[in-house]
Write a sequence for this structure.
């Protein structure tokens, strides 16, 4: 995020000026705008509140989220989780192709999540590092019997804050990414 923070600040300022001050019909879009994407019209579920608490303990500069953050994160979690009824393709080639497709879609969703968050100042982590943090948190989500998302916050925090790879390098390469790169 530190790699694109300045660009996002310019977008935010331009959006505010064009949309909210000058009321232009054509204006710069800003996915992090709290006025355009407020959460007043939606119910923020407990799973997201848990996510946000853990996320803020790692990304200290994260100060606000909006409807985009919530919706795209939920889309990402649903996209990357298979229900017990779904079958994985038996062919490794098909599995890898399906996984790559899901990864690409997931990366796009995570990009929107990252830029929809308001930061108090330039984060210590770059964009890929913030993606790693979000992925680790999302790995700990489970669905209960009624399809509600639940998370063990304490265990997730311990896994994140004690992750030597994340602390040293600022991001993590997942096992699935390693499999694709080296198989």
């Amino acid at each position: 995020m530190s790699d694109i923070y300045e660009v996002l600040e310019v977008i935010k300022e331009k959006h505010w000026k064009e949309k909210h001050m000058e009321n232009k019909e054509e204006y710069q879009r800003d996915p992090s705008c709290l006025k355009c994407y407020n959460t007043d019209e939606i119910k923020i579920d407990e799973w997201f509140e848990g996510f946000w608490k853990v996320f803020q303990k790692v990304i200290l500069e994260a100060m606000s989220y909006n409807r985009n953050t919530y919706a795209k994160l939920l889309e990402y979690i649903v996209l990357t989780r298979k229900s017990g009824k779904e079958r994985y393709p038996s062919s490794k080639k098909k599995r890898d192709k399906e996984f790559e497709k899901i990864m690409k879609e997931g990366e796009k969703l995570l990009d929107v999540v990252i830029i929809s968050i308001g930061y108090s100042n330039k984060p210590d982590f770059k964009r890929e590092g913030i993606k790693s943090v979000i992925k680790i948190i999302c790995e700990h989500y489970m669905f209960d019997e009624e399809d509600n998302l639940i998370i063990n916050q304490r265990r997730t925090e311990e896994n994140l804050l004690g992750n030597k790879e994340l602390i040293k390098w600022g991001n993590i390469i997942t096992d699935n990414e390693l499999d694709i790169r080296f198989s």
User: Anything to note?
Assistant: Residues 92-116 form the longest helix (25 residues).
